[in-house]
Amino acid sequence: MSNLKNILILGGGAFGLSTARELISKLDTTRFKLILITPRPYYVHLPGLIRTVVTSEGALEKQVLMPYANSLKGKGEVKVASVVSFTSTKEGGEVELSTGERLPYSVLVLAPGAIWEGPLDLPEEPAAVLEHINAWRAKIENANSILLVGGGAVGIEFAGEIKDFFPSKTVTLAHGQAKLINDTYPDKYRSKLLARVNKTGTEVVLNEYVDATEPSEDGTVTTRSGKKLKADLIIPSRGGRPNTSVISSSLGADAVTASGHIKVLRTLQLPDHPRIFAAGDAIEWKEQKQAGKSTGHATTIAKNILALLNGGEASTPYKGAPEMIVTTVGRTGGVAYMGFLWGITFGDGFSAMVKSKTLLVDMMRNSFDLGKLE
């Protein structure tokens, strides 16, 4: 029977994995055991998933689904399971897994990520993941006119990929705001995105909301305002929702906001639960939800956990990060924004070099010591 105390991290995405790696490099493994709990046996590289579900070219599923391999450097454990519930006490608590196993913990990190719609809503079973990808590839290939619902980064990138691989298809992008993406970014950047998407031949329809999930029999979709759009396939491309149902059911509804985001202090601890931290897309923090912010979350949480484990108090605040984004438009295009100085934008050349051509696949695999899907 091991006397090691468990440090549990729920979620194997960028934020959970970053936190695990930051901790494992400093943790006293003679006293503590780090366990990363994740529903799939591999890391899902979301920036590459959009192209993966659009085309079979290049068998991208073997690149964007990355086994955890040496990501914990042999010092921690990856358990493949979902979390059913967990408890919280002054000294820690216990997590119940879908396998029936119960794990006590000294410190818990919640990094559950987001729930996506449509093509990005991957099942948890590996065989079902590949079926899901192939099913969406077939839907897109067989469609003549496609309606994307949501003009944030996901919708823009879907439009770019579809028009890149299937230039003859009719693609419409419907967005509820007057400009693409959201007002975190300056109008100059949002206007450049619109011009770049228009260049692909995609029809962009602004200030229109679409509630339908399937087209009518006549191959059209009617917006809330009554406008008819041509489509024989609808792809939901809105942003993700926080994956926090197990948190509210375990800790009570007060642990999350009305939108479902986890309430956190500046230390990224949960109020009234000093042994529980949270990171990533699911937390209530005024910043864009991006994997690029995982290092900042991970560093803050690791410092605070180590302070607690050494008998001190968590006192390191998370200070946020400048907003930066590279929105791809196909394999060779895109528009980037860097939120420092006066706010700098870049076009196709920079976007292709940084992200569009490679989708950051090798960079992510190497930075996390991930493997390749056989």
TrEMBL record:
GO terms for molecular function: electron-transferring-flavoprotein dehydrogenase activity; flavin adenine dinucleotide binding. One of its GO terms (cellular component) is cytoplasm. Keywords: FAD, Flavoprotein, Oxidoreductase. Gene3D superfamilies: 3.50.50.100. The keyword Endoplasmic reticulum does not apply. Belongs to the FAD-dependent oxidoreductase family. This is FAD/NAD(P)-binding domain-containing protein. The lineage of its organism: Eukaryota, Fungi, Dikarya, Basidiomycota, Agaricomycotina.
